[in-house]
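Session log. Operator J.P. requested a structure for one protein chain; no other inputs attached. Running the standard single-chain path with C-alpha cell output.
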Amino acid sequence: MKRIGTLMLTAVLVLSLAACSSSSSMGSSLSSAGNALDGNASSETFGEMIDEVLPDVDYSLLRTGLGIVSSTAESAAAEGAIPGNAKFSATICALAVKPDGSIADVKFDTVEAGLAFDSSGTLTGDASQEIHTKKELGDDYGLKAASGIGKEWYEQIDALEEWMRGKMVSDVLGMKVTEREGDGKQLTDEEDLKTSVTISVTDQLRALEKAYADAQK
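Structure written below.
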C-alpha cells in the first residue's frame, strides 16, 4: 500500500467537507474516510478507503488548497416603503492537485444568504433561519424549472467538476467563456461542457485560482 502523507490526510478532510452532494460516489468515499479518522481506524483500513477514491496516485505528492470568493454586490438599500436586502454569497473550491499541475480532485459549493430590512434599519427577515449551501439544497434550490437544459445546480456543478478532473489547472483557468447578457458573468463556451453547464462559472474559476495559489504555499 502506498504511503499516506500528511498532505493527503489534509486533502481528505478538506474534500470531505466540500463533498455535500450525496450523488457523488467520490464525495461519499472521502466522507467515509474522514469518519474513519474520527473512529481511530487503522492506517491500513484508511489507506484502503483512499485507494478506492484516487487509485494509482502517490498521495504524499498531492498538494491541496482551499479558495473562497465572496460578494455582497447584490445587496440593496431600503428606499421608503421598499425594503432593503443585505445579501451575501460565497463560493468555495477544495482542490487536490498533482505535482505536474493536473487536477486529482476538485469540489465546489456555494452559499447564498440575505436579510431584509426597512428604511429605519430594522431587520424584517428571519435572522434565525438555517442556511444551506446549494449542494445541500439539492432539488429544493429550484434551478431545474428555469434551466434551459433541465438540470439542477448540483447536477451542473457535478458536471463541471468531472470535466475539470485530470486537466491541467492552467487549461481549466483558460477555459473558453462567453459573457452573459445582463450581468457580465462568464458562461462556459467549451463544446463538450456547455450542454451540461449553463450556470455562470465566474466565481468557480476565481475560487479555483485561489485554491491553486493556496496549494503552492
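Operator note: Residues 186 and 201 are 6 Å apart (CA to CA).
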